[in-house]
Structures are given as structure tokens and as C-alpha cells.
């Protein structure tokens, strides 16, 4: 048991890594979405375009859910 990490520390490391990955992949997904669209996502959000806002919200929820499941199921 000496060579095993404390479970609380290990869970904290998993949560920290998961948070970092969620932020990174959300940023990457929004940049890719902005690259493939024929309009500027930031300008449309500034104008109050609800459809673009919902699409970006879907990206954040999808990436967060998928990474949360991967990290949560990896805690076995």
C-alpha cells in the first residue's frame, strides 16, 4: 500500500485533468466550428443570434458530457 496514491489525491488529479481537457477540447471544438462556418461566430453571438448560441452551447455540453463520462468511468 506504500506505493499506491491516496484515493483523494488521485480523484483530485483526475478531476483537474478532466477540467483541463474539457476546457481545451471545448475551445478546439468552437474554433473548428468557427472555421467551418461562413460567418464569424463571435460577431453573430455579439448580435444576439440565438441559433449560433445554441450551437455553441451544444458543443460545450457535448464535449463536457463525453469527457466527464470517460474520466468518470476511468476511476475504477
One letter per element, helices H and strands E, the order comes to HHH
Gyration radius over CA:
17 Å
What structural category characterises the helix and strand content? mainly alpha
Distance between the termini: 17 Å
Low-confidence stretches: none
Largest beta-sheet details: none
Estimate the mean pLDDT confidence. 82
Strand content: under 5%
Report the principal-axis shape.
Answer: elongated
Fraction of helical residues: over 70%
Got a strand count?
0
Report the total helices.
3
Question: How would you sum up this structure, described in words?
Answer:
- With 76 residues, this protein is mostly helical.
- It is built from 3 helices and no strands.
- It has helices at 7-36, 41-47, 50-73.
- Helix 1 runs antiparallel to helix 3 (50-73).
- It is elongated.
- The two termini are 17 Å apart.
- The model has no long low-confidence stretch (mean pLDDT 82).
Amino acid at each position: 500500500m506504500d506505493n499506491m496514491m491516496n484515493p483523494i489525491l488521485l480523484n483530485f488529479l483526475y478531476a483537474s485533468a478532466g477540467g483541463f481537457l474539457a476546457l481545451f477540447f471545448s475551445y478546439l471544438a468552437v474554433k473548428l466550428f468557427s472555421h467551418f462556418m461562413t460567418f464569424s461566430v463571435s460577431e453573430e453571438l455579439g448580435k444576439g443570434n440565438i441559433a449560433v448560441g445554441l450551437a455553441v452551447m451544444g458543443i460545450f455540453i457535448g464535449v463536457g458530457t463525453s469527457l466527464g463520462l470517460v474520466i468518470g468511468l476511468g476511476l475504477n
